[in-house]
Design a protein that fits this description.
371 residues, alpha/beta, D-Maltodextrin-Binding Protein, domain 2, four-stranded mixed beta sheet, two-stranded antiparallel sheet, 13 helices, 6 strands
């Protein structure tokens, strides 16, 4: 009963303050909207390519570009021929074309000239693929032995039942991670108030234990985490996310991550003096993990060893990294519980460690009794 009363008190405090509500719910939704606006484009794009073959001697090469396909069978390029360079320049500027290729001959050697906007990601991707295909064509014409065969496989896509259709599909699960980690500054704010307002001292006169207090706060934050997962999931669907998996499995992953977020909130509360510091320090702890987990953008591989067939990177010390991969596997690629068991277990074990650390340090510094 004492745990429920503490949880009720914390939830009422959260609901009464727009600052806390905005911190918990609105900020992740804002970032989700930015992600949807920036990344809601198809992954398998048919890049519009303009070609001006001035020597009219490379129909076979251009044909190989036209026949290039993704594994799904969708064409990689949309080849269009132009004779006017000015028309091509205009198309590049308004981004109706990703790349302009001019084929000439200098000193008897065919020359491929690529022109495009270096700040346009489509230009970068199309030029890399096109250059690779050109090298393969040249090797074939010169009867060079094929040294290797390159096969590109999407991360965990083969294990699941679905595939990512847009870039937004890859990063939307990261917004769930972001939302749950926002529990850190909120927990720190709630707990620090108990310390500053001397509520802890008054609560202990009622014979409430450290276990009752921390359990009640944790329960309230678990309820907030449930709402966050539900709200972000529904908002992502509304913004165009193509869900392939189980919401309930994603909720399980989210609740696992919430354990660590609550523990880090307790830990943060030990080193702050007011609400402003709680928000700033807590948000810093949150954002560091969000960025290092890959939730906002893909990080380069920093593998230090392999465990049970899974690469363990430097930043896998954070539960958020494992939770993001698990959420991506579940919601984007449709993986089931056995397929995400490793990441889910890693997230759970690390979360328990961070929660225990936060509780022990907070108890020793502020409660003065053993839990």
């Amino acid at each position: 009963m004492k745990i429920l009363l503490v949880a009720r008190k914390c939830l009422i405090e959260v609901l009464r303050e727009l600052q806390l509500l905005a911190l918990e719910l609105l900020l992740p939704i804002v970032f989700l909207g930015i992600t949807a606006a920036s990344y809601n484009v198809p992954l398998q794009v048919a890049y519009p390519i303009l070609v001006n073959d001035l020597i009219h001697h490379h129909a076979e090469l251009i044909d190989s570009w036209q026949k290039a396909q993704y594994a799904s069978g969708q064409p990689i390029f949309d080849i269009r021929f132009v004779e006017d360079a000015q028309t091509a320049e205009s198309a590049l500027k308004d981004k109706s074309a990703a790349l302009f290729v001019t084929i000439t001959k200098q000193s008897g050697v065919p020359d491929l000239n690529f022109r495009g906007d270096a700040l346009n990601m489509q230009y970068y991707r199309a030029s890399v693929i096109l250059a690779r295909l050109a090298r393969q064509y040249q090797d074939k014409k010169e009867s060079r032995t094929e040294l290797f065969k390159l096969t590109e496989v999407g991360l965990n896509a083969a294990q699941g039942t679905g595939t990512a259709q847009t870039t937004f599909d890859l990063y939307a699960p990261g917004m769930i991670v972001f939302a749950i980690l926002m529990i850190i500054p909120q927990t720190a704010m709630l707990v620090s108030r108990e310390i500053r307002w001397k509520t802890l001292r008054r609560l202990r006169l009622t014979r409430i234990s450290a276990f009752d207090l921390l359990s009640g706060i944790s329960l309230s934050q678990f309820i907030v985490a449930f709402v966050q997962v539900l709200v972000i999931f529904l908002a992502a669907i509304w913004m165009g996310f193509n869900n392939q998996g189980s919401f309930w499995l994603a909720l399980l992953v989210g609740m696992t991550l919430a354990i660590s977020a609550i523990g880090m909130g307790f830990l943060t509360a030990c080193f702050i003096e007011n609400d402003s510091q709680a928000a700033n320090v807590g948000a810093t702890v949150t954002m560091v993990q969000v960025f290092l987990s890959g939730a906002f953008y893909q990080l380069p591989p920093l593998t230090i060893f392999n465990l049970a067939g899974h690469a363990i990177d430097v930043f896998d010390i954070f539960p958020a990294t494992h939770s993001f991969l698990a959420l991506q596997q579940v919601l984007t690629f449709g993986n089931s519980l056995p397929q995400v068991a490793f990441r889910l277990t890693a997230s759970l074990l690390l979360s328990i460690c961070y929660f225990t650390l936060g509780v022990v340090i907070f108890q020793k510094k502020n409660m003065g009794e053993n839990i």
